[in-house]
Amino acid sequence: MKKNISAFTLSETLVAMVIGLISVVAAFSAYNYYNKSYSSISQKAEISKSAREALSIIAKDLRNTGYIDPNYVAHSPESNRTERTTRLNLLSVSQKRFGGKYGQSDYLQLWYANSSQQSRYITYYLRQYQGGSKDYYLSRSVLLNRHHPRGGNQLIDNELFIPYVEDFQVILKDKDGNVIVPVCSSGCGSVESSQGIGNLVSTPYGQMNLGQANALKVHTAEVYVTIRSPKEVYSKPRKIQIQNGESPHGSNFVISSDKFHRETFFISVHTRNLATPQVQVASSGESISVGTGYNK
C-alpha cells in the first residue's frame, strides 16, 4: 500500500529562504534606522536640557552680581572692606582668555555679598577634559569670602557645568544697548590691555581703572553658549559657522566638516544691582537715587 508524503519542493524552499532573508534584513534596517534616530533625538534633548538648566543658574548669578548686603561693609570678615573696595571686582569679562578649542571663548567672573558675613566670587570659563582629550567643558567655581585674611573657602572648584562646549561669549551693554569694553578688574588679558584698562577714571566711590568703572554702567549681559553632541549624529559630514554676538565683539569662526550636532543657546539678563536707576521727580525735576540714570 502506497503512502502519500507531502513536502516542499526545492524551488519552494529557496523562495521561502529568500523571503525570510528579506524580512530579516528589512527588520534589521528598520531597527538600525530607528536606533540612530533615537540616539540623535536623545542627544539633542540632553543638550537642550543641560543648556536650559545651566543658563538659569548663570542668569541668577548675573542678577545677583553687584549686590552688597547693607551690613556687609561694617561686619565683613574680609580685610579692609570699604564702599570703594567692595566695588572694585564686581564683574569682569576677559575676551578670548582660556579660549577653548578654537581660541574664541570668554572668561567671566562676578562678585556679590549675599549677607553681612559672606561674599561669593564666581567664575565661568572653558576647561579641557583630562586624558588627552581635545574637547572642553564650561567650568564653574564658587569661592566664599575671597579676600579673607586666611584665604577664601572654595565651595565649588571647577565643576563640570556644561559638557562639550564649543563657544562661550559674554557681551555687556549699557542702557542704550551699546557694548561696554573693557569690563575687567582682575585676570584680564591682552584684549583688555589694548582697550585701555589701566586708565584711571573718577567714580562716585573714588578713582578706579577703566575696567572697574565700566562695570558700574552695565545694564544688560548677553550670554551665548554653543554646545556639541557627545557622539556623532549625522550620516554625512557638515561644515558649520559659529557667530555669537555682533562684530567685532563675540565670535565668528568656521568648524571643519564633521558629523556632530551643535546648537547655540542665548540669554539676555538685566544686571539689576550694577548701574543705579534714576527717576525724575515731577515737582522739582530732581532725581531719586544716585548714579547714572536710565530714565532721564
List the defining traits of the structure above.
elongated; 296 residues; 5-stranded antiparallel β-sheet; 4 helices; alpha+beta; 3-stranded antiparallel β-sheet; 24% helix; disordered C terminus
Structural domains: how many: 1
Oligomer: single chain
What strand line-up does the widest sheet have? Answer: 1-2-3-4-5
Helicity, in percent?
10-25%
Strand count, sense and barrel status of the largest sheet are: 5 strands, antiparallel
Count of separate DSSP helical elements: 4
| Low-pLDDT sequence parts | 278-296
Shape: elongated
β-strand amount: 25-35%
Mean pLDDT: 86
Helix-strand topology string: HHEEEEEEHEEHEEEEEE
- Count all strands and give the number: 14
Spatial separation of the terminal alpha carbons: 117 Å
Describe the protein's topology.
Elements: H1 10-64, H2 72-75, E1 91-94, E2 107-115, E3 118-128, E4 136-144, E5 153-162, E6 165-173, H3 190-194, E7 200-203, E8 206-209, H4 210-215, E9 220-228, E10 238-244, E11 251-258, E12 262-270, E13 279-280, E14 287-288
